[in-house]
Amino acid sequence: MKRTEYKRMTKKRSGKRTVLKFMLLTALALFLSVVGYGVYLQKKTNDAADRAYEELHDRTKSDLRDTAVEPLQDNVSILFIGVDESDLRKENGNSRSDALLVATLNNKKKTVKLLSIPRDSYVYDPNRERKDKINHAHAFGGTKGTIDTVENLLEIPIDYYVKMNFNAFIDVVDAVGGIDVEVPYDHVELDENDQRTVQLKKGQQHLDGRHALALARTRKLDSDVERGKRQQMILEAIAKEAFSVKAITKYGDVIDAIGDNMKTDMKYNEMKSFLEYVKGGLPEISTLTLEGKDDQSKGPYYWIVDEDALEELKYELKTHLGISPYTTTLTDKTRSEGSFETTNRGELTTEE
Fold first, then answer.
1. Which of 141, 178, 242, 341 has the lowest CB atom count within 10 Å?
2. 293 bridge partner residues
3. CATH hierarchy code of domain 21-177+247-321
């Protein structure tokens, strides 16, 4: 398919943002704490990283890479997977993913692009050889199944994954001492165990972790767009607390919260490599979304991906990673220069 000039698609929108964005900000705060709070936290962070480390079987790198990336030199991508692992939500040994976020990091520019993937996106699952909701990829194939499905959808390598459950959300908010936000309505919402026990009260409130999670998850009284706005508000509140002077002494608790509720294939030294992105403060972060439309014509609700917008999105992410936007096969390691090779044919090629 011939590709003409693509428009740049960086859209700082509030709709359909995921709860998981707080995890990246929290991780950045964690990295900063290692630099700014002494040897004790370095050891604590190292221990937490060891507890969180989980290498996937038979996967030392993406199949779309010739060799493994080096964060200090390469542009890399990270898939954040948010899971609700309460007993009522488990299926075939794995829970469904409740939030998916892809982050691409450009080493030279020190910029980050964040793509939010709606959990009901109707996409092809290569391991099951069928189309289904993207959150079912984790239910049937675990972390590896989710990575394979996202790579197939976006045609970019996923270099690392970070999987966190909702206990981390609760514990992190509690660790920073709670957050101050505007609650839009009175409502009794499900708690982390799917019991309707959390009472939200309208107005400016100081929320603990359980109440913050309930506010971020609820979508019955408004819409996905409004849910996204609430999540943005919560993220800003968490970031404000995490980077405040009074939070420095609480970083140990934040590290414990993450280490006990996170799995990742990043080793400690690889995590420390990302300090380069925050030495001058938070990097430039651009948020993207997977465009589409609602569909219930077959009974269940699906998010039908807009194919034209998806092609533009692939171009955006590939260019940011510094790889050719016209191929799904990466023949060279992508270095920090951010350059990419173009093909003579000027068309997308796929490998089954």
1. 341
2. 304
3. 3.30.420.590
